[in-house]
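@channel sequence for tomorrow's demo:
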Amino acid sequence: MTVAAIWTLVKIIGPIIKGIKDSLASSQARKSGETVPLTERDIPFNIVMGVILACMVPTGLLLYLFVQNSEISHHTTTLVILSVVFVLVTGLVVAAVCGYMAGLIECVEFADFGRGHHRGVGLGTAHQGSDRERA
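structure tokens (generated this afternoon):
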């Protein structure tokens, strides 16, 4: 299972980097006054980074409170910094894989819909044809 996870990360690093580059290019185009299609507009990168860093403040505070009265409190600063970096990297990897998989599912669903394979809303509600077709 670990090999599959690492293989997935290796395979999607290219699309992740391309997505970040496209996002930055779209932001630059909007700043320069170009009209960018609605589907290509993203939240500005500086806002995304600001929110991420703002979320790390309470994370670091919680880690500090957890470590400060323990046997390893003499390493508090190092532990908090390493833990915050670990949380950032792990969150990035999880978000990237989830986003990539959601994109794959969307592509598969769109392809199935285009071929006439319409799915129902709930379990067991897949289209089974009319009574005339079943007879």
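heads up for whoever presents: The chain has four helices and no strands.
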